[in-house]
Amino acid sequence: MFLERAGQLQPLGQISVADGQSPEEPYLYGITNSHAIYTPTVPRGITRIDLVTQEISEVIQFHDDEDFHLAANIPGTNILCGIREKDGSSFIDGYDLCMHYWCNPVERNAITICSDFNNTVSLEMAGDKLLTYCSISYPVYTRLNMPPIHTPEIPLPDGLKPESLSRYPGVIADAHMLLSANNGDGTFSPVVIDIAKEKMHCYDPIKAEALIPFRIMEPSPENPNSLQCKGGYIVSRANGGDTQFCLWDTTAGNLKEPFATYPNAVRSAAMYYSKDGQTRKLYVQFAGYREGDFIETYDFQTKEWRMFMFYVPFAEILLAR
């Protein structure tokens, strides 16, 4: 920006300008935060990866006293929302990938973030043993996404500590929220909220290095030409063996048989599907070795794994547009 004065241009500063349009196709974003294995050698921040060219570009680098985790995106907003920490405070915030700035921070006592392809909610305590949730969909707070008139109050199962739910983001699928509880003893428990009944169930612990909720899009049994959202869990190195990718049976309350396996542990995963539904892939960041992790894709049509990228330092990956 320049100010013209007496026929001369005086520089005032710089602003970030864009057309405000979300890209047609998503990018893969990597979050390097306090959970990343390879920090402090790698700066914390947000990185963009082009799905076609695999070109990497830095979006933002966090300050020393800053952290950002449990990130989610509502397709079309081009905003990453999650829990941001700065100067000793924790709050919900969103980073605008188009205009490159943090937008609309809101101080809420969030435990974790849970999302589907249309909405993102913050799970919070509503009392000593009561949990509630509130929509935090960006870009702006309106009457449509402020806390509803009826605020759900969901009793916590006996013995479940709220902070145990804060390691991984949850997913919303099939009218349920799928969460993961870190029991702190080398086991994780699936925790499922029935949204309609406002009830939370904590299931038997599973010995694993991680239990990561994920969601996929799959053809509907009633109409193969339409897609439906299903949720499940990645059981990382279950009982010291292979990592298992399992959908969750909301009726029976258990894991289905794995549709895929892999020998390495998993850090994070993100689902991609094309508008016509012909391409459906799961991007998975696997634990690597001293040089860093790597990302592979699982193709739901061919049921094959394919290498996507080597040497990544991220703690979380997600697709956003």
Helix and strand arrangement:
Elements: E1 2-5, E2 8-11, E3 27-32, E4 45-49, E5 56-61, E6 66-73, E7 79-86, E8 89-96, E9 101-106, E10 110-115, E11 120-125, E12 130-135, E13 154-155, E14 170-173, E15 176-182, E16 187-194, E17 199-202, E18 206-207, E19 210-219, E20 227-236, E21 243-249, E22 254-255, E23 260-262, E24 266-273, E25 280-289, E26 292-299, E27 304-312, E28 316-320
Descriptive overview:
The chain is mostly beta strands. The chain has no helices and 28 strands. The strands form six sheets. Strands 10, 11, 12, 13, 14, 15, 16, 17 and 18 form a nine-stranded mixed beta sheet that branches. Strands 19, 20, 21, 22 and 23 form a five-stranded antiparallel beta sheet that branches. Strands 5-4-3-28 form a four-stranded antiparallel beta sheet, with no helix packed on it. Strand 4 and strand 5 form a beta hairpin. The protein is globular. It starts with a strand and ends with a strand.
